[in-house]
Amino acid sequence: MGKSLRCFVVLIISASLLTGCWDRRELEERASVLAIAIDQDESNENLYKMTVQIPIPIKIAGSSGQGGGGNADAVKVMSVTGRTVTDAANNLQLRLNQRLFLGHTRVLALSEEVAKEGVQDIMDSFRREPQIRRLLWPIVVKGKASSLLEIKPQLEQIPVVFLMGLIENGMKLGRIPDQTLGDYFNQTSNQTMETFLNYVEASKDEVSWKGVAVFRGHKMAGKLDSVQSWTLINLRNEKPGGDIVIPLPDTKNGYVSFRPHFVKTKLRIHEQDAFSATYHCELQGDIVELTEDLNIPAEQFIVQMQALIKKEMENRAKKLMLQLQKQYNSDILKLGLTLRAEHYQQYWETHDWKKDFRDFPVRVKYTIKLRRLGMEMQ
Length: 378
Prior knowledge:
This protein is of the alpha/beta class. The protein contains eleven helices and 14 strands. The protein has an eight-stranded mixed beta sheet. A four-stranded mixed beta sheet has the order 11-12-13-14, with helices on both faces. Strands 1-5 form a two-stranded parallel sheet. It is globular and about 90 Å long.
């Protein structure tokens, strides 16, 4: 009898663990937001204007046997205002017949105006919201952030999917930095560094990556164009960036195009008379275009091209450091992180890095190695 009772108790306990999803909610009962844009309200500067892009599953091609519609039919773009992001989200919920769901949000677009005013209060809302994924991409948009959600690209039915593909492919090619919301939170919580976000421009039919927005604290201090951004990710992330197009000296309209494939960067901190830093960056890549024949032997051509590319990259790095130090005073290179890790007592404890970064001596030295010169007709 005792054995039967024990078996019965085990059976009851086991059954209680198989109760199923009693609080389940079907996907069709949720209004899933794929992208959010934040602007200043035009009529009241004390209000935020929040624009969201919500896909309509039944109108997406291939769903439930439907033929699908155009870009405008596949998504719904809605705008609301509020004193805070949460207030705007509450106002949006009052206009929806389904529960608002942010777990699928992939893009957070901020207007340049909002970014320059400061985004701390905006980010605080997303930091506390458990539905928000830390892998979504916060992006600064030139002009109105809502314009990013209103594009109608012909290559994708859902506009934000086009933007996601642009960023993901750029990341794989090493041309666009992978800067997520989680990265933003970590960097703004760290006293050794500043943060940056990708910077894009949207038109009616397309969106293009223009570089990065540089932040000091939670405010946008300025921006770097695509060329300077590629130099930044050379030094910071060991990514190749885009093709390097350089005018050929002693020619009228000659150019050489160098495509980097591999990057290796080392940062050395020097302690002689005063602290200083040197970045040693090695680029390996191919010559992919030469618009004018120099009529010189291959050995001489290699030496000449390596010297030409080295000079160009060091000039770009010098310009980058002037912008980051003198113009924006923002250490997005993570130089302070290395100083604190390697020279905490000798330097970090006795200096204010937020002020000292502006005048800290930094040099950048490039080493160029040509792997291939490309095929040519003889």
